[in-house]
Amino acid sequence: MRDLNIIREKKGFISDMDGVIYHGSTLLPGVKEFVAWLQKEKKQFLFLTNSSERSPLELRKKLQAMGLDIEESHFYTSALATAHFLKTQAPGCSAYIIGAHGLMNALYDAGITYNDVNPEYVVVGETTGYNYEMIIKATELIHKGAKLIGTNSDMTGPSDRGIIPACRALIAPIELATGKKAYFIGKPNPLMMRTGLKRLGVHSEDAVMIGDRMDTDVIGGVESGMETVLVLTGVSSRENIKRFSYQPHYILNGIGDLVPKK
After folding, report:
1. Is 154 annotated as a binding residue?
2. Contact at 8 Å (CB) between 121 and 149?
3. Is 18 a catalytic residue?
4. Predicted TM-score (pTM) of this structure
5. What is the pLDDT of residues 80-132, one digit of tens each?
6. Which residue out of 18, 69, 154, 257 is catalytically annotated?
7. Which CATH architecture has domain 2-49+186-256?
8. Is residue 16 a known part of a binding site?
9. Where in the chain do CATH 3.40.50.1000 domains reside?
10. Among 43, 44, 53, 164, which residue is least crowded by beta carbons within 10 Å?
11. 87-182 — its CATH code?
């Protein structure tokens, strides 16, 4: 095991949320101590989530309900990353949106309007309101020339009800029906990682990516030039990470292990 002090001396910390900070509505052990250490050491930190359902304010409220208060500026979601991407690609464009209000609000704030007649884009994120009519409408609009965008490439995600379908599973019927492949914005797309680093104001060599998934968090960190920490409080185990060609720099039982022992 490499010396953990190498990580502790970094200036910027980017952390995934579900499986690292909480499970559903339960805060994971060591998280409060980790956040207190970040604040005490005046580290720059950002909580990065591939979920597009909640806004930073809602994420703040969710954590407050678990007894942890973190300012909105410390959250960055795949919905915000998608809005930023579309704003830079096609300012003032319109989109047919399949997603929750976290995605709707992010796009609206970026000047992207809802359009179910002749939009430039069809944008898909997670939503419990998903239905067959949306698939038909998206297919129709893509056949007319709209481009297909996914907020993230996760096939499944954790919830209080167990593992549930995520963005890639919802977008698959649209891809199959149109023969068009979606472009996914969230982790591990370096676009989201680089924007996260920019928001932190630190270079990749001065930052660390902490996550519970090899296929989004760890590869996203590796490809962005960051040191990577995999925690075993989410979907990964010491056994199933062996099948990946790339490996994290550190494997920890939980995020609390980053806090120096007194």
Report:
1. no
2. yes
3. yes
4. 0.92
5. 999 999 999 999 999 999 999 999 999 999 999 999 999 999 999 999 999 99
6. 18
7. 3-Layer(aba) Sandwich (3.40)
8. yes
9. 2-49+186-256, 87-182
10. 164
11. 3.40.50.1000
